[in-house]
Design a protein that fits this description.
Elements lengths: L2 H23 L5 H78 L1
Helix pairs in contact: 1-2
Protein name: YtxH domain-containing protein
Keywords: Coiled coil, Membrane, Transmembrane, Transmembrane helix
Organism: Flavobacterium nakdongensis
């Protein structure tokens, strides 16, 4: 989680605490109504935090899935290059084998 996200969460919690404190101090309503308002405020805060967490989770999943695709492409590219190198190596070995056969044929005479 980035520092910006931590700062956002911390700001929300501080704001909620201040709001609750001021609400209690200046509440013109009965205690039961004040408690209901506080509960509603915390429910709103909880929903907001849940939404931010889901956004962060989705963003993280997206970044990892993009990296997964990049990794897959890199592996495919490496395998393709390896295949070409293997062909070059086989061709080189076939040429050397042909030379050795010629040399062996001369020695067999």
């Amino acid at each position: 989680m980035s520092n910006k996200n931590y700062e956002t969460i911390a700001s929300l919690l501080v704001g909620a605490a201040i709001g609750v404190g001021l609400g209690i101090l200046f509440a013109p309503d009965k205690g039961s109504k004040t408690r209901d308002k506080i509960k509603e405020h915390f429910d709103d805060l909880k929903d907001d935090m849940k939404s931010k967490w889901e956004d962060l989770e989705n963003e993280t999943k997206q970044k990892f899935s993009m990296n997964k695709e990049d990794l897959k492409e890199t592996i495919d590219e490496l395998l393709s290059r390896s295949s070409h190198k293997a062909e070059e190596t086989i061709t080189f070995l076939e040429e050397k084998l042909a030379e050795l056969k010629k040399q062996n044929a001369k020695l067999q005479k």
